[in-house]
Amino acid sequence: MSNQTQPQTIKVELPSPPPSVPELLASVRQATEDLKAKDPVEIDVRGKSSVADYLVIVSGTSTRHVKSIADEVVRFAKKIDVMPLGVEGEREAEWVLVDLGDVIVHVMLPRVREFYALERLWTVGDQPPSSDDEVA
Q1: 97/36 Cα distance (integer angstroms)
Q2: Could you give the dihedral angle defined by the CA atoms of residues 67, 69, 70 and 72, in that order, rounded to the nearest 10 degrees?
Q3: Residue 5, φ and ψ in degrees, nearest 5
Q4: What is the pTM of this model?
C-alpha cells in the first residue's frame, strides 16, 4: 500500500442560464435608483460594439457616492447570479466602470462625465439629420 493520496473529485454544479439582458438592465436600473444616481442614460450599442449590448451611464454627487453606486450595482448583479467581469476605477472613484458582460455600467462624477461625453460618442449618427443640416 502506498501513501499516495487519490485525486479528489469536486462536484461542480452547472450554472443556470444567465439572466436575459432586460433582466440585467432592470437589476442595474434598480441598483442605481436605490442609491439615487443622477441622470441615468441607457445606450443600446448592439451593432456598434461587440463588447456589450448596452452601456448605462449615471452620475454620483461625490467620489463616495460614485463608489457606493458601483458597489450596489455589483451587489444587485450578484443577486441574479451575474459575477462582474471587472470593476475599474474604485480607488479614485471619479469614474468607476462595472463590466457585467452584456451591460457595462459607467458611474461618473458630473465633471468627468461632461469631459468624456460618452453619451455623444456612442450616439453619433443615431439621430437623422435635421432639415437645417441639409444642404439645398
Answers
A1: 17
A2: 120
A3: -85, 145
A4: 0.80
